[in-house]
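Async update (no meeting this week)

Hi team, since we skipped the sync, here's where things stand on the single-chain job. The sequence we agreed to prioritize is pasted below, unchanged from the tracker. I ran it this morning and attached the output directly underneath so nobody has to dig for it. Comments welcome in thread, and please keep replies under the output.
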Amino acid sequence: MAILLLTTLKVHLEIPVSNTSQDALLTDIVDGVNAHIIKLCGEIEVDDFSENVDFFEGRGFTANRPINSVTSVVDEDSNTYTDDSTAHLLKSGLIQLESLTTNELTVSYNAGYAAVPEDVQLYAIRLAEHKYYKKAGAVSESAEGFSIKYLEPEQSMLAPFKKMVG
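Output:
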């Protein structure tokens, strides 16, 4: 599952899907938008992950969310920790351990969304539209008493999906 598909962007821009004359440009835009959102939010689609997570007093945040399930939490000596997280904690990417350990632990888990959240999809479309219509290097332009500023869409709609920064 991609965040934004070429066909979705073409339909939004009212470019016939069968018209391939701009596909190279549009594909670059789609790829850039998808990479940008993944950089901000982590992976969106459901997948299995394994990462080192810093825990403080038994709490640690994963890079990807929502967490669907935790497979294992182990330290460098292969000691296993049990997670005591509830669904709302996992949704935010927070793992709560029964132990109040402060340590870097390896967490294996499954995370992501079954479908791209609507706010993420809308942001992707708006950002792609912005990149399509904005003239290279232009911040704004004026003609015959009219002016336009090329502003990127507001990232606040991504706030619930952004990954935690450690």
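Quick observations from my side:
The longest helix spans residues 23-41.
The chain has a mean pLDDT of 88.
Reply here if anything looks off.
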